[in-house]
Coenzyme Q (Ubiquinone) biosynthesis protein Coq4 (Flavobacterium phragmitis), 150 residues
Amino acid sequence: MRDYLIEKLYESSKKPYQKYFKKNEPWKIDKTKLLDYPQESLGLGLGNFLYTNHFDIQEKLEDHDIIHVLTNTGVSVYEEIGMQYYLFGNGKRSLYLYMVILTGTLFYPKRIKYFIEQYKKGKKALPFHYLDFSKMLLVPIPSIQQTFKI
């Protein structure tokens, strides 16, 4: 029930967030073209992630799925919340991040140990949350992970 409630909160807030808060341009890339990228590349990793999870590219929110790929974070509700803790540890600050962390902590108090572990992992990594990943799709994932200690 709480997973359903959190997912509904996310779905209802996604469109206004995209429209009013995300100022970046949508990536001009086709989901099917991502599978043509070289082995180990960020582009192929994103394509595989989208296909494996039956997702489409979300306009102006492409970075979110890239973070999943780079941090190897799953897509369950508590893992999504954990990823926001990771990003908080990595230095990202946004109203949306604070809302997810607050509601996630309230809804999943038994996962606090996992959330703190994710925060610590994000803290250990060099800041990467601000990168323009659209220009890095040909870069090998292991190279990015090693460079930023992800």
Remarks:
- The first helix runs from residue 2 to 21.
- Residues 2-11+31-148 form one domain.
